[in-house]
Amino acid sequence: MIQIEKISKKFGKLSVLNSVDLFLNKGECIALIGPNGCGKTTLIKIILGMVIPDTGNILVNNESIFKAELYKKQIGYMPQIGRYPQNMTIGQIIKMIKGIRNSDAELDYDLYKAYDLDSLLDKKMSTLSGGTMQKVSAVLAFMFNPAILILDEPTAGLDPIAAEKLKQKIIAEKQKGKLIIITSHLLSELDDMVSELIFMQEGDIIFHQSVSALKTYTQTEKISKAILQILKAGKNGKNI
Amino acid sequence: MKWILITLLLLTSKYALIAKSLHVGSNHSFKTIKAALEKTESGDTVYIHKGLYKEGNIIINKSITLFGIDRPILDGDKKYEVLSVKSSYVTIRGLRVQHSGYASLDDPGGIKVYDATRVTIIDNELYDNFFGIYIQFSTHCLIKNNKIIAFGKEEQTIGNGIHCWKSDSLQIIGNSMKGCRDGIYFEFVNNSVIWRNTVTDNIRYGLHFMNSNNDAYFTNIFSRNGAGVAVMFSKKITMMNNTFNENWGDAAYGILLKEISDCHLSGNTFNKNTAAIFMDGCNRTIVEKNAFSNNGWGLKIQANCMDNTIQSNNFLKNTFDVSTNGTLLLNKFQYNYWDKYTGYDLNKDKIGDVPYRPLSLYSVIVENNPTAMLLYRSLIVTLLDQSEKKIPSLTPENFIDEKPLMNLLKL
Amino acid sequence: MGRIFKYVMLDIMKNRFVMVYTFILVLIGWSAFTLEDSSAKGILTLLNLILLTVPLVSILFSAIYIYNSAEFIELLISHPIKRKKIWLSLFWGLNSSLVTAFIIGAGIPLLIFAEPPLSFLMIGIGILITTIFVSLAMLCTIVYKDKAKGIGLTIVLWIYFALLFDGILLFLLFQFADYPIEQPMVLMTALSPLDLSRILILLQLDTSAIMGYTGAIFKDFFGTTIGMVVSLGLLILWGVLPFAYSLSKFKKKDL
Fold it and tell me: Which residues on A lie below 8 Å from C72 (Cβ)?
């Protein structure tokens, strides 16, 4: 579904992505993990067209994203920190995005209802807490029923109940056969949702494995432990 | 004594008996003016009745009166000088003189006076002539209440409204001139007075003095001329209570004073002239009690002017109140009211305690470097002027009104 | 573009600053004509407004608005909208709201109190100057990603056009006073939209005689129809080029 070919990006002299190749399929829920500054967010921003890569190409449904913007209709994006025009209310933002997307697909109000946004529609963005802002971001990401969901640290800042509701939603969407990409530091959260793991470090993909294969290989039950083992093994010079 | 009186009475009554009246007109004894003139003797009056008279050049060589009734028209057919006065004591009244010959070497005029004295030209209309009224080598003439209209397009193809040459003791009163080269032109004319004329829309100057001395002009109105008045190479001209309006154009002045001395300007009003007064080579001239408002330049005083006094004038809303092209000023400014003055008067004598420098830095820059006009009303110009006012450095040190007035003078 | 333009407009209209700007323009515009005893003075007040206040507010407000809209732009880009559309919408949104403020504040009093050819010229030039400085502001925000630096640059640009450029002209005038510099000087003014505007307006005022007095060239060039058309064309270029450049850069910008 998303094919990433030899993507490189430098910010000034700092190389953020070194010729990254990835192939992401329908129905997968992929966790994109790695230490701070490993290039995850940049990679996501490149997929979203917010950052332009120096070289390489990305195909979404076999079409290059650098030619047209329409591929973004298939993407729902939930940013790490939602940033919205401060003067607008939640209602206006939602209305505006609806207007911009102008989507024919049936709108998905599950999260909207779950988070009870109806009662908050008149609140200005400038008065919202970080958690509420994240709720708005989540609602907007799922609302247009996109085939691809990109969630950047989705649960950060959400209260446990809201986070749980989001997780359920992610699992539900995954079962509908959507491609879901999640970046997260909280490895423990990922256990129930994720089917694939991509580990990045300093702009390189260290590994790209399915969770089940990983768990069998390391003989652990938790993703976090599996990763720790691999990292230790990596330091000892063993290859995967 | 008694006998002498009686003799005198008899003598005058004899004259009165001799003086005839001749009537010209289609229903009168004389059909043409020329025919009537042949029958006149000095002292006669020729009455010209309503009608159009095309008789070429009419020469008057006897002391007679030409009197128009219901404004008869004398037409020069654009070929001839219409009336040539070659005798003294002639009166011309109530005529309309039109279409004189144009632009030939002998300067044809509507009415031309040659070598005469005490000629009176009164209440005539001069329409579309080359020169309107032309006076040469004449004295004690009175030119009064005439209306002169011409349609000049450029200086070379039109003469002056009232042109006076080598004459003396003329009175030019209450006339109006429009569309001529110069409204009134004086060359080698002395001891004459110009009073209550209205001079508008002339191509070159409203009033032009060349080499004329001891003349005066009062209470005239000069509007929309190339320049209001030009006084050149003359002495002792008095200029009082005149109004100069809208002499506004690329090189227009209210008054242009060039190489003159001992003149006196007083009580004049200058409004909306490009430069109200331009002084070039003026000496010992007094400029006082004049009002300068809404002019581009109030007073342009060149560095070759000496010993002039500029006092008790009002300067109001002019773009530049004064300007000069030199670094030295040998003239005196005092007791003027400047609307741009921002000083104070602590001792309440109505004279500002701080001397005023009317010369702005920008006006000096423009004078030396006209292209700088490109920056007119630019912020930098305002800032430069302000700083120069605080710390004078480039403007002449002695260009200063030591006693600026706090209040507008009532003129 | 319509939809995004609409949201940008809505957002700017709600901005208190634009309200204040409109109010100040109204205040100055009307008092200039009603308090001064002659309309000529009112026109000069408005001339200064057009040459100093309008460009400063336009460039400063636009730059601040663009910097503050970084989130909005990011949000939009993650949705299926062309970057060109976003940038154009911002430009037209800023431009039309500032132009509206100018027309309400200065345009209406000009139409009421000034004579038609002059009033139209001044309104037209006011609109062009607003556009030019919005366009320059957008260039500044592209040049510097850092808000403080970018806003600094806008202020420097304003000082340059309002003051320094004329200072340079004056300096050159003195340096080359002995040469025939009128023509090069007229060409130089093409490098400053504010100088072009100032001369165009001044030549329509009574003061044109004073300008002509010192050298026919200004009138011969700026006073003619061709000169006028060329000058207005240059002003439009000043409005288009910085924006066009910023647009081409924005298309490749990393957010």
Answer: 83-85
